[in-house]
Design goal:
mainly alpha; about 70 residues; single chain
Length: about 70
């Protein structure tokens, strides 16, 4: 399931392409999903298309009430 704020959609890939993505992702210590996102951002940047950075979800515990 996609984290809040992420758009989920089905993607069909050639099995050989997926295996190559798995190898690239493992080499970069990323998930295949994160690797695809990085590659898409790089490809868009090469074409001169700006992608604004989305607001990152806050990590960690929320502040305690009353403090």
């Amino acid at each position: 399931m996609a984290p809040p704020g992420k758009k989920a959609f089905p993607l069909r890939l050639d099995p050989a392409l997926y295996k190559a993505l798995e190898r690239a992702a493992a080499g970069d210590f990323r998930s295949v999903n994160a690797e695809v996102e990085v590659l898409l951002r790089e490809a868009l940047a090469k074409r001169g298309i700006k992608v604004e950075a989305s607001e990152q979800p806050k990590r960690g515990r929320p502040p305690r009430q009353g403090d």
